[in-house]
Specification:
Oligomer: homodimer
Order of helices and strands of chain A: HEEEHHEEHHEHHEEEHEHHEEHHEH
Strand order of the largest sheet of chain A: 3-4-5
Radius of gyration of chain A: 20 Å
Largest sheet of chain A: 3 strands, antiparallel
Largest interface: A-B, 40 and 40 residues
Structural class of chain A: mainly alpha
Distance between the termini of chain A: 26 Å
Shape of chain A: globular
Number of helices of chain A: 13
Number of strands of chain A: 13
Strand content of chain A: 5-15%
């Protein structure tokens, strides 16, 4: 199938309306914590607050979202003020004395838990960078660049962070190069940084060389340092939605580099391989985990459908379609879009449920927790809206 | 309903036959690793080995099982030899230089991961103690007692183990007093230890004082050090099957202490409260997590049915019925027994599947992984068989 100009225009309007009229109002301005700063996000389906703790990942992501809307949609003061609340909370409460960030803090910013990886830091980089652009603050831009530098060290210097495993069976995950590519892309698109292009290229080379397996049409989630497959439960476990998120980071880079054909081909291969492995032909939707050899996965909830892989696959399929015109990507986009807005979207209170059983029943009513908040869904709606606004010829708005 | 003598005799035969004719043959002797010692247990439904790594918890539990069968069923040489294989592997490969044990090792015993809690150690204590009794080895008995002493230190001296959380919101779990009660009970019943009675009493006092909430009819999984409920996701999360495992440890202690009425009442209250909260009235079976206030649980797989809570509830309900004669426990026992042997038991290859969706469909075909192996199911069948053999008047065997 193909998407007509009318269909693309309708999708553009749909994503815009969902973002501004359904997703954002679920969270803001109500979630802004007027007393302590930051955001109160652990909400039930109807907006009831279930827990007033703060997940540092999500504090950064929410600040990024508000600053990004200010930068790219329109300069609404409430978005700038909202972003500032999160930035202040991050800077005042979420850093440990060693420069690392916490993972989980109380409402008033006391630390509950620090983890042995640095995703809190990468989300703070994109929040600081977007807020620096929105506010024009050189101080914030400096902080973003300094923290990005630390993230590069954590990602590349062995032993910087406490390891979770011994060195008997060394392994590396695709998550680090992926998150660093996206962090660098965000930094480049907001305040700019001379390191970004070179590092993005290096991380894409690493993904292609070590994680993308053309012979078996697969993107691995974890490999040995030399890229070989580790034939144990963890090494065999695939995360198709995550790999497809990586695919669109690569496609986004291809688009930035004037439709670089090599990067386009790489992003499309990653998408193709993991759609084949992740799409549930029986019930629809993206299965969470798969085994590279089709063996049983160790994780017992492996066949659940999580919200965020669907956001990533909606972006990846639309981006691949817009960039290549290949009809299969329109077909896949329509399939995953229809599945997601039918099964995840809460038509009563807005936003999406996070977790479905394989057959599409919601497993919990929660809209926000340590891992879910205003990020993947609004990012998808924002990204697809902007992509279509830049790409469709029939510009009605 | 009530169980007739005939019904109890039939159950006794059923558990014995399942243990010796269905569960044990799935694992042994095939799982014994003739090359490196220990056991190869990460098996698919048909016995195919999916991963040759070794989970230290399960190595200890399997050695305990074989030595316990030798001690209590009959002195089969293959059980003694099989136990020795696991004991040798534990002693030669599973201890770090600091005296702590690993969690996950390779087939040949190289360490992959060490965790910040000491369950590997408690399972090694019961394995060493049972093997010491079986073999008559004083050296093994000394090792069991020495390691039990270390476990008491880990359980009671703050700061012995690296904490996972900061001290901003101190919490303690019911898991530590529970596992220590059971470890001490096993030690006492095999080689004896003068510390056991006093420590068991202390841990039961702690559970009753801090975790059992009569006003709201609940057993908490985690509380503040003073026993107060922590009103956040983790603090509100209940694990009914785990609490009911605790209930039968208390009932077992009551039985050991000549049907101590106070302990009997405590065990029955724990069982009553958590049956009410954990039994799935719609589909049957024990739900994995619940929220103390009926709010949504953060864990997305919260409504799955795991095999081991069913083993614990089968033991607890039968023990409560045998000890009290209260008909409701026979009703509950029949319900959970029927649910479990209908839904978990693999009628083709024997043993049980580990993980069902709420509606009873198996989520993965795996029989063994980092957490599942020859322990909860054979322990249940062994315990119930022996309990009925000691309790029923019509002794046909």
């Amino acid at each position: 199938m193909t998407y007509t100009e009318e269909k693309l225009a309708a999708l553009r309007t749909f994503y815009k309306d969902q973002l501004l009229g359904d997703t954002l109002p679920f969270w803001f301005p109500g979630a802004i914590d007027e007393e302590y700063g930051g955001y109160l996000l652990m909400k039930d389906h109807d907006g009831t607050l279930l827990d007033d703790d703060k997940a540092v990942w999500i504090q950064g992501r929410a600040a990024w979202l508000l600053a990004t809307l200010y930068n790219t949609v329109e300069p609404r003061q409430e978005w700038l003020d909202g972003a500032k609340s999160g930035i202040d909370f991050l800077l005042n409460h979420c850093f440990d004395t060693d420069g690392r960030m916490f993972f989980h803090v109380t409402r008033d910013g006391k630390p509950i838990r620090k983890r042995r990886y640095f995703f809190s830091e990468t989300f703070a980089v994109i929040a600081l960078a977007a807020y620096a652009k929105a506010s024009g603050s050189k101080e914030m831009a400096d902080k973003a660049r300094e923290l990005f530098g630390k993230c590069i060290e954590y990602a590349t210097i062995p032993g910087m962070l406490t390891p979770k495993f011994t060195d008997v069976r060394p392994a590396k995950g695709i998550g680090v190069p992926m998150i660093m590519i996206n962090t660098a892309q965000q930094l480049r698109e907001t305040i700019g940084d001379p390191r970004c292009d070179e590092w993005i290229s290096k991380w894409i080379v690493e993904i292609e060389r070590d994680f993308v397996k053309d012979d078996i049409r697969c993107v691995m989630e974890q490999v040995a340092p030399d890229g070989s497959i580790i034939d144990h439960f963890d090494g065999r476990t695939l995360n198709p939605g995550h790999a497809i998120e990586g695919a669109w980071f690569v496609l986004h880079e291809a688009r930035y580099r004037n439709s670089d054909p090599k990067l386009m081909a790489l992003g499309c291969r990653m998408l193709d391989y993991m759609w084949e492995r992740g799409w549930d032909k029986e019930y629809g939707g993206i299965l969470y985990f798969r085994d590279v050899d089709g063996k049983p996965v160790q994780e017992y909830w492996q066949d659940m459908k999580f919200w965020w892989p669907h956001n990533e696959v909606i972006i990846a399929t639309l981006l691949a379609y817009i960039m290549t015109g290949d009809e299969k990507y329109a077909t896949w986009h329509q399939q995953v879009h229809d599945y997601a807005y039918t099964h995840f979207h809460d038509k009563i209170h807005g936003e999406w449920f996070g977790y479905l059983h394989r057959d599409g029943r919601a497993s919990v009513s929660i809209k926000g927790n340590m891992f879910k908040g205003p990020f993947h869904l609004p990012r998808q709606e924002w990204y697809c809206w902007r992509l279509l606004a830049q790409s469709t010829t029939k510009k009605t708005e």
